[in-house]
Here is the input.
Amino acid sequence: RGNGSKTVYVIITRIGDICLVLAIFMLGFLGSSLNFQDIAIKAPKLALDNKILLEWATFLLLCSAIGKSAQLPLHTWLSDAMVGPAPVSALIHAATMVTAGIYLIVRTKILFVLNSDILNLVGIIGALTLLFAGCTALVQSDLKRLLAYSTMSQLGYMFLALGAQAWEAAIFHLVTHAFFKALLFLTAGAIILACNHEQNIFKMGGLRTRIPFLYICFLVGGASLASLPLCTSGFFSKEKIFLSLLDHGNINFLIIALLGSLITSIYTCRMIFLIFYGTQKIKVRLLDRDLTFYLPLVVLLILSTFIGTMAIPPFMNFNQEIRSGKTFLSSLELELLTVSIVLLGIGISIFLWLSRRNFVLRRYMAQNPLGRFFITAGLNGWGFDWLFNHLVVLPYRKIAILLICDPLQNIINKLPHMLFNMVGIEMIKIENHGMLRIYITQIILSFMLIVTVLLLM
Here is the structure.
């Protein structure tokens, strides 16, 4: 991926920053305040007086949130950010940067409610990212990159909830996602360390007996990611999103969310089966670490279970009842449907990756033209890296080269350079090679000059 991806990483994050700064300027100009409460009070009046400007400000806030939370099309930076150390990846993907976009939309929700088209766009972007990232994760071989695409997919769930005005459900899933995704990344870092820095899941296998504690941690984190019923925190938060989508009548979004749940359970189980089951393909060194290494894993493991839902502060009010409305499914029927979909995904994964008899089937799928296209496109990010490289990176580099050859810049840089050269040459002339009498003469003359200036003043 080379230096081009690093340049894209910087530029993509800067796009979100620029959009946020422009939105702040516009809101400050319209409302004469940047306080959230003041904006919420003045927003209805601004929607009547300056509707177009308010729409643009809201759209820029959305663009900023897309860049910060790695949604389509400003998502490429997140898969490149996973090359850092595992604790850094755990923070970026779980608790810090990617949460900024979700939080921004929730805090400025009044603006999105007043601009229904942009609010609907939030849900559409979340739906597209959910499916795109899930399908990409299905073919990844790099463990941390797979988890990075899974983060994009889970953030897509949150955007879906925001598009349906399910603010509490989005934040609830944001909190529980921080628990199990941090657990998965830290455990993945420990697994990579035990496997001598190998990150290819196809080169692992059979590790559950060699590193049992890490197996338990990864199994619990994966179960919460796949929303295993009743025993994981991810199930309760994701179920709240499904119920909110049903309650608000967003049937299309609900269908996409259920399809995303199926894909999530498939790639999660695929990851677990390839790493911990089958024959061992790599030499594992046991990790001799102190308590500080294992304590965070234990804490996150506990919070990734249903106990994590009890750790939510009560003032957040995540457990409020869903409004009752006339829908084609009852809440109980929807819960049974989601559980069935998760179990179906687990069954498909067992059929494909735990049964040796299906090796021929997997090989046929990989050699089939459509299967080869799917795998190749997924491994290359469906061409987004190539697209950004040609549309952003190469023009950016050409502009940078032109700026280096800018004659005005050369003139500006040469003037101080010439000045310092002249001063340096003159200073060299007074160098005396350590002759004491010259030092004394210079001190006396300098003293006389200072006294004279002081007397004249």
About this structure: The radius of gyration is 29 Å.
